[in-house]
Amino acid sequence: MSRATAKVSDIDSCGLTFSELQELWLGPCNGSVFESTEHLRAAWAAGRAVVMRLWGAGGRRPMAWWFLGDAASLGLKWPGYHNQQSYLFEHNALSETEHEQLLAGWRRDFEDACLLEDAVARRKHLDWADVPHSLRRQWQAARRRRERRSAAPSAEEVAATK
User: Fold this and answer.
1) How confident is the model at residue 155 (pLDDT cuts 50, 70, 90)?
2) N or C: which end of the chain has fewer CB within 10 A?
3) Where are the domains of the chain?
4) Measured between alpha carbons, how far is 59 from 118 in angstroms, rounded to an integer?
């Protein structure tokens, strides 16, 4: 009689504890679970694929990515949690999927902000959504052009006034 065996997940096979994976994701809390910097670096090497699969998406990166060489190799520095998405976008450090997903979400946030009467409220909404300033400028310029075209008199209206 053959015995059924379960596949071991990549989480189990990376050789790290859940606490170690959590620290690679979020950084140390009340001290590190790793004995040394070398142990931390070895854990990142062993668990990088798992940690990136679980928490390296949506325009965000795990703390180990930011502080153990990946970001530095791209010339990037930690921008703070709330600015990761726009920072990675502006530095072309997103996957194609992340890029497209964030663009779609930011476009919705931009259109929502345009419904607000107050300029300060619009800016705060766009800051909250972490919409990159380059996109704000681009989309605002396009919006102004559309508004000018729709406000301009048509050729028939101009001819009627002559």
Assistant:
1) low
2) N
3) 10-77, 79-151
4) 29
Q: What is 12-60 written as a DSSP string?
A: HHT---HHHHHHHHH--SSS-SSSSHHHHHHHHHHHHHHHHHHHS-TT-
Residue 58 near residue 84 (C-beta atoms within 8 A): no
Residues 114-132: b if buried by 16+ CB within 10 A, e if exposed: eeeeeeeebeebbeebbbb
Q: Is the pTM of this model over 0.85?
A: no
pLDDT band at 154 (very low <50, low <70, confident <90, very high): low
Q: CA–CA separation, 67 vs 77, rounded Å?
A: 8
| Interacting residues of 16 by C-beta distance below 8 A, sequence separation 6+ | 24, 43, 46, 47, 50
CA–CA separation, 17 and 114 (whole Å):
47
Question: Tell me: the pLDDT tens digits for 34-85?
Answer: 999 999 999 999 999 999 999 999 999 999 999 998 999 999 999 999 999 9
Residues 45, 52: Cα–Cα separation, whole Å: 11
Structural tokens at position 79: 């921008």
pLDDT tier at 161, thresholds 50, 70, 90: low
* Closest among 63, 92, 93 to 78, alpha carbons compared: 63
